[in-house]
Design brief:
Elements (H helix, E strand, L loop, with lengths): L1 H20 L12 E5 L14 E6 L4 H6 L10 E6 L2 E9 H9 L3 H9 L1 E4 L4 H10 L3 H27 L3 H22 L10 H6 L2 H15 L17 H16 L16
Parallel strand pairs: 2-4
Antiparallel strand pairs: 1-2, 1-5, 3-4
């Protein structure tokens, strides 16, 4: 894994160098930019297929110059796909104020990126300051987010019951995927971690204490997804195999959530 990450960092540095070599119009602002590699390549999920994501933070006083540069992402946090040195990469730009606002709003994608990014250049200390802030999220916030995810799980479970009774297998499958996603995200929040992106959420959640608790029930549900074709085998929810599997996840998740206030969490505070 260390060798894979090192290879990723070297590839990232080469792409960044090639990008700026081809963008001499950015020479005036480059010394003030904080350059960071983000994405799966900087995490424990790195592999030889990890793409390069370049996150660029810039001081607020460079807003006009950045906006005027052609070919850069338009709008705060916008992302474009580009090529440099013959290799593809994703480029995201954030001003200092926008990045700080996202951190203070507890935006999970931003928290995850800043917690896992690797700094290539940080002359003004923007990256260091924002990365420090990304780690300063109170435990109460994560508990609130876990509770909100649990409530979303319950809502998806209720919707699942409706689709099973009405004979809607496609919507039943959609509800199953969404409720599992909420359960996994709750596990990350309980561990004080922003949920990883959907590609790596399962692996990330299974490494948390709560994930270890719900693992058997989640695997049992995933192993029985073929029952979607027959709507769980019964319109009676007490005998419906899919619904019973979901109830097993719920009971285990409730055990992990014991002590968290599931009633008073802010409905708008969910994880990502």
């Amino acid at each position: 894994m260390a060798a894979v990450r090192q290879a990723f960092l070297e590839r990232g540095r080469e792409i960044v160098a090639a990008f700026f070599d081809n963008r001499r119009d950015l020479d005036a602002v480059r010394p003030a930019l904080a350059l960071m590699l983000a994405g799966s390549g900087t995490t424990e999920f790195a592999d030889s297929y990890s793409g390069v994501d370049l996150l660029v933070l810039y001081p607020d006083d460079l807003q006009a110059q950045i906006a005027a540069a052609p070919g850069l992402p338009a709008g705060p946090g916008a992302t474009v796909r580009a090529r440099a040195g013959g290799a593809p990469f994703k480029l995201t730009l954030l001003s200092y104020s926008e990045a700080r606002h996202r951190i203070e709003a507890r935006d999970e994608a931003t928290l995850f990126a800043l917690r896992t990014a690797r700094v290539l250049q940080d002359p003004g200390g923007l990256a260091a300051e924002l990365m420090k802030l990304a780690w300063q999220v109170p435990d109460a916030v994560w508990a609130e987010k876990a509770a909100t995810r649990y409530r979303e799980f319950r809502r998806r479970k209720a919707s699942l019951a409706w689709t099973l009774r009405r004979g809607q297998p496609f919507l039943a499958l959609e509800n199953l995927l969404q409720l599992v996603e909420h359960a996994l995200a709750a596990c990350c929040c309980l561990a004080g971690q922003p949920p990883a992106g959907r590609k790596w959420l399962f692996q990330a959640a299974m490494r948390t204490p709560a994930g270890q608790e719900i693992r058997p029930a989640v695997f049992a549900l995933l192993s029985s997804l073929g029952d979607v074709a027959v709507l769980g085998g019964s319109f009676n929810l007490r005998h419906n195999r899919l619904y019973l599997r979901v109830s097993d996840i719920q009971r285990t998740l409730e055990g992990a959530l014991r002590g968290v206030d599931m009633q008073n969490a802010d409905d708008n505070g969910g994880c990502g």
